[in-house]
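anyone seen this seq b4? input:
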Amino acid sequence: QVQLVESGGGLVQPGGSLRLSCVAAVSPFSSYYMSWYRQAPGKERELVAGINEIDGGTKYADSVKGRFTIFRDNDKNTVYLQMNDLTPDDTGVYYCHADPRISNPMWGRGTQVTVSA
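predicted toks r here
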């Protein structure tokens, strides 16, 4: 049973943009801390951005600040990652993560993002 489904990845040129989406089949979605991680080949999975379940406060990796924006639509059970001014260093598999705080978190299966000329 798949509870988190990512979409929106693909191949883009440096300087391009992508918007990732994650539809979460969880309830209540508004109670989950949602975040995006990525994993580049040969590297550990790292936190890219997170958004809390209280006031919408956000957190970003230093490498993406000013370029990426995380936001959520609780009515649609969806969290988004808008990625602008992409560079080859942004290449990797991007994973949606949902943390209910009171039980085990869950991962999506990932969507590939490749930034290359």
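The chain has a mean pLDDT of 96. Residues 13 and 116 are 5 Å apart (CA to CA). kinda curious what u guys think
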